[in-house]
């Protein structure tokens, strides 16, 4: 019997309701019927993002949404502070360099969160740098940056804050408008639990004022055009119709559960998984942890890639390993999207078995017990 | 009862086999299992494109694939002849201008095909112009350009030929390598009968030599990176997993039917639909017609938008109307993808009813009869 439980930090399991909606006979996108889908998706996303203006739907993966933000809201040669500390934070810098920006790398150890005071000093000492990029929840390290303070510091210097919310939106509280986040990008395959293929970008009025001044060449990712079209419930180019149909369903599911409860549930999964990791003698990489994914280091002598492989091939659970230099020792256990306590416990039970099979000395059931305790205490 | 028959020039009906494959539990993309999907999709596409090198899979709609071709295979300021004659041909020029190319508009009446001798003269008289873009099957007008001769002329002048094959690949014979087409782009929602959300780009060695010399900024659409990744059966960024799973299925279906037969079937649908249009007293817009879609003009006094509306709201068939200035008079009846004779006849029967309801004097059954005769004669 071969059936897989997907516990990666994205793509995530797609709920059956959404899968069935996407499997229906395809509708045409230039119709009133589909305009209503666009309208309702954008209205639902506005609530999840708590944004000034409804997010735009783009047919691309998350990186396309990064690029759309970069080419519309900055100018060639502009100085931009790109907060690193992981693969995705660093990607902002790569996109910036590709477009000829003057990128200031705000380097961080992988696993560390940005100290808002450091950002404050940077912005004070470098008045030419008035754009900041950051990955709120750094998927490669499981770090969640202190976003409320970071937004406050950005505001106090009049800087534009562009946030990768790919594994943060719908996982952590991150109210764009209230905190003054200018641009936030997201993707379909994380907390929205859909297949990858759609990106979202929301922007503040302050960001939009920059769009006309931007001198980067752009066509597919020209958000001014998308903004105009989507205000009329159309898209500039043929959209990923099925993903939009799925999005309508999962937004409805989020509404049924309650957005506050969706975030709270992710908090419980994060707490439970971290407790399990510690009970299993694994070190947590992130001191300021994301509730999307738990990054855990196996001790010397145990091979993380082997644990991942056993987990999948023998125990039927797919998690992610580490990236770049963290490959030999890191495990990333995802718990975002429409994931139940049962899923997390099943994933942890399999993790225990794989760790033991890979030679790690852990007590059978210790991780599951710790997680259960956390869950039960939160009832 | 509400059930819709989709007979638009794309998106097209998605076969049940593909829909079920896409509705399965989502798999992760960084796995051997998905690498095998990438490998088999690219191998299958190579046959459909008859390309020198396997086409690349991109997560975007067709326009994203246009842009990817433009930014990788041209240089800023380079002179490029963009063949117009319709919305999509003209789009190449729009993308080119957005990226600072020196665009030479090869204007055509909407409905006309490019005369290869005109191209020959243009390339002879303007030695600085060595890149040509064209939409092989112009979806907005139903024209199929004489691509074999156009490729021959391009070759004879050493010019780079970039072709939008979005409604041509898998519909017409268009062997890239044999004819010397340098770049061809396509999308998932046309002859491949999948939901929109994936674009394909194939390029010749001659085109690839240009990729390193290109000075356009690019990141998401940097095809050099994709080429390297996809050679190892990976993608640079998270791909549209479900569409790839569907692609594997439809490529298998094309193989079962035989690629020659797929093209021949589109030819029969085109012939049958054109015969029906004439029997119904509709004028064909294209003298050199595409087998993807038949563009027909209603006579004065009949409103094409009303026919489209009746067709959908009363008779349950979705076709497309005209774009831009052709809106009042044009109907575009699509017959591409996994479409059967039964679908075409059902669509034509509904079209007859809608035409008559909109005040057009046509004989009931005349269109269906003409199409039947064509189909039966081809057996």
Main attributes of the structure:
homodimer; 379 residues; alpha/beta; Aspartate Aminotransferase, domain 2; Aspartate Aminotransferase, domain 1; four-stranded antiparallel β-sheet; 15% strand
In brief, what are we looking at here?
The structure is a homodimer of 379-residue chains. Chain A has helices spanning 16-23, 32-49, 62-73, 87-98, 116-125, 147-156, 176-179, 205-211, 223-231, 241-257, 259-279, 304-313, 341-357, 366-377, and strands at 5-6, 56-58, 79-83, 102-106, 129-135, 137-138, 143-144, 160-164, 183-187, 199-203, 283-284, 293-297, 317-318, 320-321, 330-334. Chain A is an alpha/beta fold.
Please tell me the overall pLDDT of chain A: 97
Most extensive contact: A-B, 58 and 58 residues
What is the CATH third-level topology name of the largest domain in chain A?
Answer: Aspartate Aminotransferase, domain 2
Number of helices of chain A: 14
What's the Cα radius of gyration of chain A? 21 Å
Quickly give the CATH architecture of the largest domain in chain A: 3-Layer(aba) Sandwich
| Portion in strands of chain A | 15-25%
Structural class of chain A: alpha/beta
What share of residues of chain A is helical? 40-55%
Order of helices and strands of chain A: EHHEHEHEHEEEHEHEEHHHHEEHEEEHH
Count of individual beta strands of chain A: 15
Sheet having the most strands of chain A = 7 strands, mixed
Oligomer: homodimer
**Top CATH class of the largest domain in chain A:** Alpha Beta
Shape of chain A: globular
